[in-house]
């Protein structure tokens, strides 16, 4: 999940990949959002296989599955989601409810609505261990709901009573594998597993939590479709989440749902026939790509005196059958204490997202590694060159 | 706009038009939702013209229009919307902001967010003249927002201070043409013009209000795409609405947006070449269809001793260049006082929506006239036959 803001007119960004990137030494590059255009070359290679045709008389009704309480979920998409998780081994879907949303963003809010405790005198506190995804706070608080309110860092949470803890694993922004931290009886958990896919992290076991959120944007790179899904254990919670989607938008685009079903089907096929068919396994491709980017980034950071990166353990990935390291979608870059690294990077024509947005210090910054190749390379070049300029900037401003 | 609930497994409904309707004398028919499948035969006739092809590598980015604050709006859709309104003459779009939403439902909530007055001690009251669309209340209140709250019938509203009035014209459920009723300085208006199209009502002038909501569902019948749009005068309001869509779902399905652009383009072409080309004018087609249904319905009601329908004035329609009557999407059927007409109709195997959901008495009921032909005919048959049974039912239950 990302929380984009629009760019200034003069910036050249990863955000319009249909236009040819024309990067010059002067171009401002936007690495703020996790716009997953990195995977576009793969899908281009897939050619006709993923092409979908929709006629003018298709998909006209509000309804997709009359008789299911999630009446707006296309059965083809539900089946593709279940098969994909079985194939990848990253989530339990047997005897679980599958819901679709307009991105996992809408489902996150549906989950808050479903598990908050109305009727109490207090709004239910929503917490997440820092550094946490920068948009949770705003998404929780923007309507000033009487049901729930943002309460910040889960580590600092000491209020009695019901609460909701979001567990993001692998974590956005820092890629770490996480478990709940508050662990009290009155807590409800929402697991945001947007990045629990083989290109980003070893698949160590099928996740099996009460509410799990996934998204088409990060699994295959199709952010423009706005398709997310939730896998939910409890029927009452699942029904309330479906009710939220109904009240919020009377369902979810059917065009996007059917396209997602088709593309996930191609991904599954690629996984099953890996090594024998002409479809390259998408996740192996993604893993190779992310691994290459991380190698390059680590080399640059290693040569630097001022930047640091988190270390990730090597773990057995049941999907690839190999010991692998995490290759998160974002670099969580650290500088020496109190350095305003976002400002330094901006002065060097790179838009990134500073640590304070994630509930930590400004010596941290989140940088998208999902940009097109050309932009990623320019980023590395600029990062390598920054040291001296960065320090100069620091001196001037102290 | 409709507020659907899922049907029981045994009902045969308009809601799954891809399956062949197999109506028998025993079939329960669902006329509760305004599922606009009536227009499907037209789009089937359009054949290839509206067919859209999307490849696997298309539409991957979050962004559609970097540089526009409504960065998630596909420029093609914006242009098609503006051209359509110019062609139909039903709304002013020059020097206005166009926003897209996941149905007009999402935009309605975006508008509440944008025009409510945060910071005051009271939540902004949201009112609408009864009978009002049955979902406004629930959509306004379900998150118990601290910004706004539902305050019911605009005619009964007498509270001082800021308020928001929704003006639905033609009105859902009763098809009447409306203006604001509270008319105080501190009021903000949201005009829901979902049904201000030539197939439902004469186009008497281009609407020109602060916030106007339209939807793909009711204009062309493509409810499954979840595309709505807003035309907004004030930049600050438009920006806040875009922010709402960003926080609520990080934009709107691009597949649906591009399909809507394509289909609206075909509609425009049909309007421009009416009488000369091989594309039939969609609105003329729709007007003929709705007019036929209303004639048949009126004949049945005329023969009845217990049912009544609203009367609509005949007005000059600038689009068709003719004097025409309204042919609303819903029949707003009235029975004698205190009759629970919804229950009577249900006992006769017709699911409709009772008056109490719309803020009036249970002697009213809203019935969708947008069902497939076969279902509409079965509805007329049952309505004709109901009188005796209805009265029997009444007697048994009094």
From TrEMBL, chains A, B:
Q: Which cofactor does it need?
A: pyridoxal 5'-phosphate
Q: Which UniProt keywords apply?
A: Aminotransferase, Pyridoxal phosphate, Transferase
- List residues of the Alliinase C-terminal domain: 29-386
InterPro entries this protein is in? Alliinase_C, Alliinase_N_sf, Ethylene_sulfur-biosynth, PyrdxlP-dep_Trfase, PyrdxlP-dep_Trfase_major, PyrdxlP-dep_Trfase_small
Molecular function terms, GO-annotated: carbon-sulfur lyase activity; transaminase activity
User: Tell me, what's a Pfam family for it?
Assistant: Alliinase_C
Which GO biological process entries does UniProt record here? amino acid metabolic process
The organism's superkingdom is given as Eukaryota
**Residue stretches in coiled coil:** none
Task: Write out the similarity annotation.
Answer: Belongs to the alliinase family.
Q: Subunit arrangement?
A: Homodimer.
PANTHER family this protein is in?
Answer: BIFUNCTIONAL ASPARTATE AMINOTRANSFERASE AND GLUTAMATE/ASPARTATE-PREPHENATE AMINOTRANSFERASE-RELATED (PTHR43795), TRYPTOPHAN AMINOTRANSFERASE-RELATED PROTEIN 1 (PTHR43795:SF15)
Q: What is this protein called?
A: Alliinase C-terminal domain-containing protein
């Amino acid at each position: 999940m990302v929380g984009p803001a629009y760019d200034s007119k003069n910036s050249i960004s990863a955000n319009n990949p249909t236009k040819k990137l024309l990067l010059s030494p002067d171009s401002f590059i936007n690495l703020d959002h996790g716009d997953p255009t990195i995977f576009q070359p793969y899908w281009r290679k897939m050619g006709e296989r993923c092409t979908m045709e929709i006629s003018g008389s298709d998909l006209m009704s509000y309804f997709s599955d009359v008789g299911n309480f999630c009446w707006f979920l296309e059965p083809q998409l539900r089946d593709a989601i279940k098969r994909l998780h079985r194939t990848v081994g990253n989530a339990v879907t047997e005897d679980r409810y599958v819901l679709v949303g307009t991105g996992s963003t809408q489902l996150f809010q549906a989950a808050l609505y479903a598990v908050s405790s109305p009727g109490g005198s207090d709004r239910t506190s929503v917490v997440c261990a820092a550094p946490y995804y920068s948009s949770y706070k705003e998404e929780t608080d923007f309507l000033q709901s009487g049901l729930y309110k943002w309460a910040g860092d889960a580590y600092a949470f000491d209020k009695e009573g019901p609460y909701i803890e979001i567990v993001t694993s692998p974590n956005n922004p820092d890629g770490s594998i996480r478990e709940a931290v508050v662990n009290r009886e009155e807590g409800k958990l929402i697991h945001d597993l947007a990045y629990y896919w083989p290109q980003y992290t070893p698949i160590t076991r099928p996740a099996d939590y009460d509410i799990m959120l996934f998204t088409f944007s990060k699994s295959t790179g199709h952010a423009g479709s706005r398709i997310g899904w939730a896998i939910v254990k409890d029927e009452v919670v699942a029904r309330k989440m479906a009710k939220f989607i109904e009240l919020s938008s009377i369902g979810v685009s059917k065009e996007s749902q059917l396209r997602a079903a088709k593309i996930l089907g191609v991904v599954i096929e690629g996984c099953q026939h890996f090594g024998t068919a002409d479809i390259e396994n998408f996740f192996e491709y993604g893993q190779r790509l992310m691994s290459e980017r991380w190698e390059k980034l680590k080399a640059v950071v290693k040569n630097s005196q001022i930047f640091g990166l988190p270390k990730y353990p090597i773990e057995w990935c049941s999907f690839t059958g190999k010991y692998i390291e995490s290759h998160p979608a974002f670099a969580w870059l650290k500088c020496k204490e109190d350095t305003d690294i976002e400002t330094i990077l901006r002065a060097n024509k790179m838009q990134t997202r500073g640590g304070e947005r994630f509930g930590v210090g400004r010596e941290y910054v989140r940088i998208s590694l999902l940009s097109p190749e050309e932009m990623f390379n320019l980023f590395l070049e600029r990062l390598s060159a920054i040291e001296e300029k960065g320090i100069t900037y620091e001196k001037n401003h102290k």
